[in-house]
Amino acid sequence: MAEFTVTGLRVVREVARSGSFSAAADRLGYTQSAVSRQIALMEQAAGCRLFDRHARGVRLTAAGGLVVRHAETVVAELDTAREQLGRLIAGPPATIRVGAFSTAMAALVPRAVAATAARVPVREGLSPHLLTAVARGRLDLAVVTGDRALPDSVAVEPLLDDPLLVAVAADHPLANRISVTPAQLRETQWIAGSSKPDDTLLGAWHEPGHVPDIAFVARDWFAKLGLVAAGLGGTVVPGIAAPLVPATIALIRIDHPAAVRPTRVVRARGLGTAGEALVEALRDSAAALLAEVRNRLR
């Protein structure tokens, strides 16, 4: 007497789902004759017909419905066992310790982490502190800004030139522009993270010979955007933070060679396969974010 088999149960389930032998064969990558043969063997094992054949396909019998319900359970359990065995053989996921400055945490780093299989504890911090942490082995890699001297124990590679944008309210006189020159920004009231124009915290566009008018000081990004949306001033936003900016706020490119923020990945040498995969995911995330910024500015 024939016995129920896992292959046969998979075929019965697929025929029940698709309603015909030919459609099931296409989905499973089998020939139609192979599907017919498996159904015949399953019907022998059941001792009765599992499907009624008709001109437009097949229909489950009462016995077939019973077998399909059990087949769903058996196949699902076996698939789960296979996945668990794979994880057991592979061992625990690799751990990659990552650091990033605050605006890189808006989308750049989270998207990359979500695309990897590694366990990735993330630490937010200022770029100088993150560089030190990588150099001393407390982090495996960090996403940083600025151009600083690096020890020989770490490797560095460019990730993107992050465009600096001006965020203004939708009814601001500059809101309909794609780009502005620094001269067009001189009358702007600014919302910045510090009252000092040369502070490293973003907020006000400044250039030699001109002191920006900083009307409000706010360190929190949501506070800055709230003040902008109320029409109380503009603020400089890095392109990688654009996903945080509501569509009701206009973003404008600053037409100046210095209106970019070089962003780099600093990493320990000999990072390993999981670390290299995360770096590649960061590259993909950066490319996708730049495309989003370009679309937003059109």
From TrEMBL:
Pfam family, one: HTH_1
InterPro entries: LysR_HTH_N, LysR_subst-bd, WH-like_DNA-bd_sf, WH_DNA-bd_sf
GO terms for cellular component: protein-DNA complex
Matching SUPFAM superfamilies: Periplasmic binding protein-like II, Winged helix' DNA-binding domain
Record's protein name: LysR family transcriptional regulator
Protein species of origin: Nocardia veterana
Family label: Belongs to the LysR transcriptional regulatory family.
Keywords annotated in UniProt: Activator, DNA-binding, Transcription, Transcription regulation
Highest taxon listed in the record's lineage: Bacteria
PANTHER family cross-referenced by the UniProt entry: LYSR SUBSTRATE-BINDING (PTHR30346:SF29), TRANSCRIPTIONAL DUAL REGULATOR HCAR-RELATED (PTHR30346)
Domain HTH lysR-type: 4-61
GO MF annotation terms: DNA binding; DNA-binding transcription factor activity
